[in-house]
Input
Amino acid sequence: MHDSNRQPPGDAPPAPGTFERLATDGGARRGRLWTAHGPIETPAFMPVGTQATVKTLEPRDLEELGVQIILGNTYHLLVRPGPEILAACGGLHAFMGWKHPILTDSGGYQVFSLAKLRKLSREGVAFNSHVDGARLFLGPAEAMAMQRVLGSDIAMCFDECIPWPCDAQYACQAVERTLLWADSCRHQERAPGQLVFGIVQGGEFAELRGRCARGLVDIGFDGYAVGGVSVGEPEPLLLQEIEESVRHLPEERPRYVMGLGDFWQMTEAVARGADLFDCVIPTRHARNGSAFTRNGAYPVKAGEYKRDLRPVEEGCRCPVCRTFTRAYIRHLLNVDEILGVRLLTVHNLHCYMDTMRRMRGAIEAGAFQEWRREQAARLRSGTAGKTPEG
Ligand SMILES: [Zn+2]
Output
């Protein structure tokens, strides 16, 4: 899997799983991960398309925004529409009309956070659907089979995500189960060109993170994820958990920090060697009437923007900011017009894609440390929505 003969002859694209490290700056990496549906320039942010849609957007919108890869949720798609329909429709790419890379999670996180009446065994978890209470079972074999049906470019191992706080004994058992399940996932049949990433768990315990990471590396995956972070723990602990996981992972493989989407935390994770991120916040915040800017988020829905004729973010070159005012978007949101959510989703994702482009540019230019300091100053300025943003 990790052979050095990935480069095929001629002009054919590199084989899926090829990870090119184009530049480094301290711990930060500027890379390119090849998948069966094309390359991903890293560090990259993946918008979340839980129900086979990034809410309110269609694939054409995502392409225009420069989105390279989206995330699909195996658990939700297993519950509805279910594997039979997805298989009949030719997998997730064909089903939703998206031609570019897709990463699917394994469903583990949702089973442990959403589903009711779980029963845990060596083989996996029996649980009741959060929608209709139907009894379902998900383990390494089932999670990989479902991801094979989805045909994602990157499949995630089925793991046990523990809550925070969690005692060391339980965290240790969860790590053992996660490693057992990872070994099983690694040996399941895959969709053509599908990559599989292992997930480092271990909660806040450095030695468990190390044990899990080294165990996964021994099994050997196309990439590695840091899981069980951003589950309510304080930020210094979160960054420490990332550090304690990444330090045991091979330089030549991509690293994905799951569920992280705060600009500052992503910057700090990149400084520690992370390459991929996903989070619902740019899209969820849009539905709650919050606008992201390079200086942080602000509630465009608030009364003070009632007569504001400025765009959502001054200086933003997204199609929404080129056309519409805060006053208009605030109005749409306050009368529950669906266009308001759509426009804010477009802007918020543009802001995310733009931030990642700038981050990649800073690493390429050897100016990441400077960029990191500038980010800190911007995000702590508390000026989002207040003053001209350059
Ligand atoms: Zn904009």
Remarks:
- The chain has a mean pLDDT of 95.
